[in-house]
Structures are given as C-alpha cells and as structure tokens.
Fold this sequence. Notes:
Elements: H1 2-19, E1 28-38, H2 40-46, E2 52-61, H3 66-71, E3 77-80, E4 92-99, E5 107-119, E6 122-125, E7 135-136, E8 141-142, H4 160-170, H5 174-180
Parallel strand pairs: 3-5
Antiparallel strand pairs: 1-2, 1-4, 2-3, 4-5, 5-6, 7-8
Amino acid sequence: MKTICFAILSVSLISTAEACLPSSPADVLVGRIASIEKGAELQRESQSKQGFGLKFTDYHWAFRTWRQRLILPSAQRFEGVFAIISLKPNDIVVALASHYNGGKPHNYRIDSVAKLTCQNNKLILQKPLVIPVSWNRQQQLCGIGQNYAGILDGFIDNNQAYYLAKLQQKYPTCAALEKTFATVK
C-alpha cells in the first residue's frame, strides 16, 4: 500500500513540476540587439502568427557559473514567438533564453525580454514584453505574485532587486554598460 501511495504522489509531483518549470538565473543574458528578423520557420513550428529571430552584437550570460558555461551549448540563434515591436537594433536587453534541441543544439528560445537602460549610473530594467513562467516565492507555487517586479523576479531563490544589484556590480556605470556591447553601425 505504501508503494502505491508513493507512486501516486511521485507521479503527481512530476506532473506539477513539468507544468511549472520557471527559468533559472543561468538562462539570463544581457546583450545589445544587432538585428531583429521575422521568424517564418519558427512561426511554422509553433503555429504562431508572430515570431522573430534576434541577433546580438555581443551578449553575456549574466549569471552562469564557469561550469555551466562549459556544459551548456553555445548559442548561434535566438528565437521567440511573441510581439517584439517596441525593441530595435542597438537596444540593450535582458532576456531569458532557454536551450531547446529540436535537432538544432545551438538554438535558444527567448522566453521573455526587457529593455535595460542606465541613467545617472543606475541600471533601469523595464517591464518584460512577455511575463515568463515564474515562481511566486510568497505562495511557494508557480504564478505571478502581487509583488512581481519584472523579468528577474521569477526565480526560486532570490528576487529582482538581488539580481539587478548583481548586474549593477558588473556594470557599475552607464559608460561601462555601453562599452561592454558593440553598437550597430
């Protein structure tokens, strides 16, 4: 009887975990947009009316450890299936990008993106274009809480203020942020 109860509990927990798989800090990249292209191939695969491919002049995985950088595949293409009309080349963004295989091991899907600006040497992160699957730390479940702050707020361990402070340490001045990522000519 204990075995049956354990099996049922395990199956229910697995399905819950699969239904809510929020991004991790390892999925966060910061980069400058070089170009935005229509993603016809991605639109066909997802059956979405919207789709795009993003190319960056430069990008950095903001919170990956050295081990994750060795293990996870490098990105050659970034794709998404939501409207991206408010962004343009030369914008610096924070994106959540997850690796998916699909026979193309170097493709990453953009799950959410938000513009990153700087004013008076303080980083400012705008609201994301799409709210990603997020972990609500107050209720200990998937979903958006009342205090949802933005794209970096849906991780299990820490909130957006914590991760934004980490980014501020990496880019302490507006000049440092601008200098890190080459501009589009």
